């Protein structure tokens, strides 16, 4: 707490001070503590022509009691009016949406503007806080509708994105399923073809071995007797199968003479075995004669 003198225009500091009666008199008493001033509610127009009702709280401190006493008549009233005019000026630079989003920057701009003007008064504005912002009922309803529309828009967008993602996932799953199915079918066909090839190869190998063993057996002693026995067995088996499979049977005239039919079959086999080398030799001689005839014609 500092006191200023009326006569000398000085300030009484803390501690013991002497005053001359009738000459010295305490004129102003200034507190050096931080002062809180309630800024009354006022109307302001934003950049988009919306009328707002705004009130705030101002925090200030007196740095120079002499300037605060003799520089302005009522420092608190002057700072309050300066805060109101500065607030209206700053709100006129912002739209309604930015007023709600940029309250912190708005407060700092008001404090900066107040300090530029109150420096001559010995007063320092520490901070300014906006308490309430009141908008007209119609504007408030439109803002509520805008918020609801924005929320519906977001919900619709999220739902559509979810539907799109679900469709993409389903299509991707079907694609992968078709690819895997085709690959499985391809592998199955390859395995089946390989199995069939191996089976054919095994049958061919077995048949070749059987023919080789049969030819070796026929060249051995008593081979013709073994062949006769095999033909007789196949003859009897063939007639028994014909009797089981069909009602109509074509029988030779000498069905009872099995030995004669076996002898006839073996005779045909022997004849074919003997005529095969002769036929081969005859074909070789014919090819040789044709070559000689062609050479003679070419020399002529």
From TrEMBL:
GO process annotations (BP): mitochondrion organization
Record carries keyword DNA repair: no
Pfam families the UniProt entry points to: Band_7, Band_7_C
Entry function: Mitochondrial protein that probably regulates the biogenesis and the activity of mitochondria. Stimulates cardiolipin biosynthesis, binds cardiolipin-enriched membranes where it recruits and stabilizes some proteins including prohibitin and may therefore act in the organization of functional microdomains in mitochondrial membranes. Through regulation of the mitochondrial function may play a role into several biological processes including cell migration, cell proliferation, T-cell activation, calcium homeostasis and cellular response to stress.
GO cellular-component term (any): mitochondrial inner membrane
Region of interest called Disordered, as start-end residue ranges on this chain: 281-300
Superkingdom in the source lineage: Eukaryota
Membrane topology field: Lipid-anchor
Keyword Mitochondrion on entry: yes
Family: Belongs to the band 7/mec-2 family.
Descriptive protein name: Stomatin-like protein 2, mitochondrial
Domain Band, residue spans: 1-147
Entry-linked PANTHER family: STOMATIN-LIKE PROTEIN 2, MITOCHONDRIAL
InterPro entries per the UniProt record, alphabetical: Band7/mec-2_domain, Band_7, Band_7/SPFH_dom_sf, STML2-like_C, Stomatin_HflK_fam
Keywords, alphabetical: Mitochondrion
Species this chain originates from: Seriola lalandi dorsalis
Subcellular locations according to the entry: Mitochondrion inner membrane
């Amino acid at each position: 707490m500092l006191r200023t003198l009326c006569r000398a225009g000085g300030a009484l500091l803390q501690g013991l001070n002497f005053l001359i009666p009738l000459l010295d008199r305490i004129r102003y008493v200034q507190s050096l503590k931080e002062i809180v001033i309630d800024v009354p509610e006022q109307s302001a127009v934003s950049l988009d022509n919306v009328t707002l009702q705004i009130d705030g709280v101002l925090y200030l401190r007196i740095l120079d009691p002499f300037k605060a006493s003799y520089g302005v008549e009522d420092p608190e009233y002057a700072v309050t009016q300066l805060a109101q005019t500065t607030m209206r000026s700053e709100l006129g630079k912002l739209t309604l949406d930015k007023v709600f989003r940029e309250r912190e920057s708005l407060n700092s701009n008001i404090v900066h503007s107040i300090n530029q003007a109150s420096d001559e008064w010995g007063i320092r504005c520490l901070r300014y806080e906006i308490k309430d912002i009141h908008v007209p009922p119609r504007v408030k309803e439109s803002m509520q509708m805008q918020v609801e529309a924005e929320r519906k828009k977001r919900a619709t967008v999220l739902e559509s994105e979810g539907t799109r993602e679900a469709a993409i996932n389903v299509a991707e799953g079907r694609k992968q399923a078709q690819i895997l199915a085709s690959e499985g079918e391809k592998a199955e066909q390859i395995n089946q073809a390989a199995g069939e090839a191996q089976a054919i190869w095994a049958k061919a190998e077995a048949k070749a071995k059987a023919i080789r063993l049969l030819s070796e057996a026929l060249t051995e002693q008593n081979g013709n007797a073994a062949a006769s026995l095999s033909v007789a067995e196949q003859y009897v088996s063939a007639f028994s199968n014909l009797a089981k499979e069909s009602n109509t049977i074509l029988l030779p005239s000498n069905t009872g003479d099995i030995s004669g039919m076996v002898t006839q079959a073996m005779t045909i086999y022997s004849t074919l075995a003997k005529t095969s080398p002769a036929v081969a030799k005859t074909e070789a001689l014919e090819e040789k004669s044709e070559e000689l005839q062609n050479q003679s014609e070419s020399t002529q």
